[in-house]
Amino acid sequence: MPEHPQHPLFTIYKRRYLSKVTGYSVGYLCRIATGGQPLSRSFIERVCFTLKQPEEDLFLPNAAETDGQSQ
């Protein structure tokens, strides 16, 4: 399986902490981090709002383009 570049979100914050503050399960966050689950616009917005951080600081460029694939 090819290496999946990880979003800065997962190098800045631990998945257990993200699970606690966002309500997403650790398993779901792991799937997003490894590319097993595509990002959705709602996930990006919820995480950015909860952490009070801009999208460009937490996600790779063009991360939102996967939105159409996840619905």
From TrEMBL:
<protein>
    <recommendedName>
        <fullName>HTH cro/C1-type domain-containing protein</fullName>
    </recommendedName>
</protein>
